[in-house]
Amino acid sequence: MTLASQKIKQNIAEYIIFLWQMEDLVRAVNFDEDAIDSFVHSYVPDDTSFVEEKKWFVDLMQNMKKEGVEIRGHVTEVHELIFELNYLHNTMSNLVKDKTYLELYRKAQPNIKDYIERTDGKQTNDIEICLTALYGMLVLRLKKEVISDETTFAMQTFSNLLARLAFHYRLMKQGEVNFTLN
Fold first, then answer.
1. What is the pLDDT of residue 182?
2. Is 181 within a domain?
3. CB under 8 Å to 31, separation ≥6 — which residues?
4. In whole angstroms, how far apart are CA 143 and each of 45, 48, 70, 139, 175?
5. In this predicted model, what pLDDT tens digit does every residue of 92-128 receive, in sequence order?
6. For position 45, what pLDDT does the model report?
7. Which of 28, 118, 143, 165 is most buried (CB neighbours < 10 A)?
């Protein structure tokens, strides 16, 4: 099972952020398969795993080229997953009214608003905003930038909200969801 397959089963939000990171990696190495091979070899335990991971990367590179996102943007899969998560978010907020989810969303809302004000505001929904912000923090950490306590706290509210949403997404995909209207 590929790393991507593991992530998509465990936590859809983490998978989306992972996919964004891998798109950026592919761009950074200019779609060079030898560079991807070296990267994959750095974390796979055996040849069978290497073949699976390499295939996943080749498929990603082909999709990026086919969809015209070699320089910027995301593959269609990302947009579809964000759409699904946003739909589930709206269901949890407006129909199911899950108390735990609503409380996490209430805590994240001021930070979402603040993030929109501090950025270009191009994200289309609150879920995409949370994902984009968390990815931005990941990039800052990789660059070893200093991250303020205020930002860390805000990102934690996003992370908590997305974790709960990912939990419900996983249940939904496994057919185990039992949305009872309050």
1. 46
2. no
3. 61, 64, 65, 70
4. 27, 32, 23, 6, 40
5. 999 988 899 999 999 999 999 999 988 876 667 999 9
6. 86
7. 165
Q: Are residues 85 and 147 in the same domain?
A: yes
Angstrom distances, CA of residue 128 to CA of 31, 52, 122, 144: 26, 29, 10, 24
Burial class (CB within 10 angstroms; exposed 0-12, middle 13-18, buried 19+) of 150: exposed
List Cβ neighbours of 140 (8 Å cut-off, separation of 6 or more): 147
Q: How far apart are CA 84 and CA 168, in angstroms?
A: 12
List the beta strands (DSSP E) in 12-139: none
Are 83 and 162 contained in the same domain?
A: yes
Specify whether the CB–CB gap between 127 and 82 falls below 8 A. Answer: yes
Phi, psi (rounded to 5 degrees) for 152: -60, -45
d(CA 166, CA 13): 6
Query: Of 25, 41, 66, which residue is a domain's last?
Result: 66
**What DSSP letter does each residue of 123-149 carry, written as one string?**
-SSHHHHHHHHHHHHHHHHHTT----H
Q: Find out whether 85 and 39 touch, Cβ atoms under 8 Å.
A: no
CA–CA gap between residue 85 and residue 83 (Å, rounded): 5
Question: Token pair for residue 17?
Answer: 């952020």
